[in-house]
Amino acid sequence: MKLYDVAIIGAGITGTSIARELSRYRLNIALLEKEEEPAFGVSKSNSGIIHPGTQNPVNSLKGKLCVQGNFLIRKISKELGLDFKEVGELIVSFNEEETKELLRLKEEAEILGVPGLEIVDKAWLKQHEPNLNSEAVRGLYAPTAGIISPYRMVYDLAENAVRNGVEIHAQTKVINITRADKYFEINTSAGMFKTRYLINAAGLFADDISGMLGIDDFKIKPRKGEEFILDKKKENLARHLIFPLPSKISKGVLIIKTADGNPMIGPTAEEVEDKDDLATSDNGLGKVLMSARRLIPAIDDKDIIAYFAGLRPAAGDDFIIRHEVKAPGLINVAGIQSPGLTASPAIALLVKDILQNNGLGLKKKLLFRAHQGKTIHLFAIPFSKTKGLIKKDRAYGDIVCRCEMVSAREIRDAIKHGARTMDGIKFRTRAQAGRCHGSFCTTRIMKILSEETKIPLTSITKRGKGSEILKGGGLIDG
Fold this sequence. Notes:
The structure is a single chain. With 478 residues, the chain is of the alpha+beta class. It has three domains: 1-84 and 148-219 and 316-374, FAD/NAD(P)-binding domain (3-Layer(bba) Sandwich); 85-147 and 221-314, D-Amino Acid Oxidase, Chain A, domain 2 (2-Layer Sandwich), CATH 3.30.9.10; 378-468, Arc Repressor Mutant, subunit A (Orthogonal Bundle). Helices cover 30% and strands 22% of the residues. The protein has helices at 13-22, 61-80, 96-112, 122-128, 150-163, 206-211, 282-295, 340-357, 383-392, 408-416, 422-429, 442-453, and strands at residues 3-9, 29-32, 49-50, 85-86, 89-93, 118-120, 138-142, 146-147, 167-169, 174-180, 183-188, 191-200, 221-230, 241-243, 254-256, 264-266, 270-271, 304-314, 320-323, 330-334, 399-401, 406-407, 470-471, 474-475. Strands 1, 2, 9, 10, 11, 12, 19 and 20 form an eight-stranded mixed sheet that branches. The mean pLDDT is 96.
């Protein structure tokens, strides 16, 4: 049985960031994921905001890593061809009492090192955010805030890690872990893995993984956030990410620009017990609409095209990133909720340092392939360039998803790069993500997926085993 130097549990944004960073070194690395594909856990519901660091306590680990991560994302985006866009952030106040809180947030953020912060007045807001509520009096402007596709970031990190030697084992659920002599034995649904060092980046289930090795001093308490996606025709509803003043447990209901153009409103923040509770509700919709309309009164519920909920893996007020003395070689990376996406590159560097400080020898590879080509998305390029692509390859002119302008070539490329489910294709390409929710393109995508992978049509799933789309000769709700 192969002995790995490092095994990472969880192929979300944290696990794939760590895997890619460690792939710079001469190590045998396994990345274990219980779902059918990476990004199918917490990361699939991320809003895609790259935070500047304005809403974190000065002495917090998450604050420090957020500011560092915001800087690092730029370099990683250039290397991997990611769709990072710096759009800036506004935290809005509606009276003088709230403005005092903006000043406090600015002060704390400047101590953390957030650059370019500015308190802007009513005239600035009117000029730069014409749809904003006219009752807003001030805003804290942070120019370094940005947006990115969280799924595509995970996929590109994972692909680059594999290119540099990491093994990804999907559909590999951890059942039990034991410590044997100088290594861990990880019993999984796909067999046994042995590793010298173990990184627990299991998101909502990080406490369960940690508990298998007797470390049970933290508990993941899922915090559900309901969010609502608006039609792409509302792309210019806001020019920045717009926040209210934060509460003790949440950054509040936001107006969120996204990398794909569709604005989002949300999220709610509700503690739940069930780690699989992804239900949306009329109550959640009502709360979000009321709060969002306080920021932009013109928001119309008729423009909502999709509802979804995500669970944030809360474990107290701060991230838990530490080597466990009681289980030498185990590094817990838990409670990585917002701003976890932003902080992920900095978390990876911190984990690398922790490993090195606890005996893992790190020798850099002579050749680390940092760069990879930018994935082509027709929805993101001008029509003049699309015409050139079609001349080179007619499959770019074969439009499969009309709502999101996704071609057959893009679908086939997504499959070539690892998509094995309908959600995997949707997260990579946006096919099925438009107003019709795949009514016109689902059967065509299934046919292409079956042709490319030799998976029978009856075995094609939405998101993995148990979500088959064809049963008994007909379409079912996935």
